[in-house]
Amino acid sequence: MTTIPHTPQRLLRTVTGPLAAASLTGPVLAHEHLALDLDRQGDAASVLDPRQHGPAVSRELAALRQEFGLCLVVELTCRGMGRDPEALVRIARESGVAVVAATGWYYEPFHPRADLEGASVEQLTGTLVQEIEQGIGATGVRPGVLGEVGSHGDTPSEPEARSLRAAARAALATGLSVSTHAQLGHGGLAQLDLLTTEGLAPHRICVGHQDLLDDSAVHRRLAEAGAYVAFDTVGKESYQSDQVRLRLLLALLEAGHADRALLSCDISRHGYLLSEGGKGYGHLFRSFLPALRTAGVDEDLIDLMTRRNPTRFLTGASPEED
């Protein structure tokens, strides 16, 4: 009698419940915001108010599901960023697109004083683990990723280092992966060193906003170490042109690291929505991926970057398990 080895089913934790990773047949947006409030100094543009903008967000995602098969959005609004888990549930149900919620702390200017001031790494870790295991507040919505855990500059500040260490320890305790915010692409190597020093495997780390850093050598070092390299601000031309993003991504692919790339648009202001004249969540599919195809990137590599890589990252699977 032949025994067929049993392979445990890998599950994603979404805002509406567990989802089998194998059920994702279309692309994933690896770093987005659907409900957000980054207004600290009267910058009302840096808001995605679910009461005002939620319907437009749902319509955009539903249209992308119909046109491009969008299956999942990784929503990286965390503590201190105006996170709204109940709005994420509504958007997921209205759009038919699964959503993964996040926990952690953004970079220092957005740290809630009550969370970070005087708190040890152990205390911060406890806060994150409790949220992951019991849900966000009274909503019952459980985060499925740690992020976007942030720093700014070439090295994290002391509070940022504490929050990053706490994220690594919470990841080890719960099995979730960590997605970072590297301000304008800087400091990614320092983030990776800090997280791995805590014992977190590189393949469970995604270093954010690397498409804002015009330094292919850094991208290669991150990928060679085993971390994911996020080209996640596609379409944000005021920060970096898509032409430069394309060149940087092609260099990473040519170096043999397609299995380390994650792609997204990081919609973080309501003016980026299609309904307000912006490029929207679909710019990746409508503009950037066609440019990759024109440059000679085949459909298998595009599927790798937009579906298999983010699925593997979220489940904490190693590349050998793809």
From TrEMBL:
The keyword Metal-binding applies. Its cofactor is a divalent metal cation. One of its GO terms (molecular function) is zinc ion binding. It comes from the Bacteria. Keywords: Hydrolase, Metal-binding. Binds 2 divalent metal cations per subunit. A divalent metal cation 2 binds at residues 148, 181, 209. It holds the Pfam family PTE. InterPro entries: Metal_Hydrolase, Phosphotriesterase. The keyword Metal-binding applies. A divalent metal cation 1 binds at residues 31, 33, 148, 266. Belongs to the metallo-dependent hydrolases superfamily. Phosphotriesterase family. This is Phosphotriesterase.
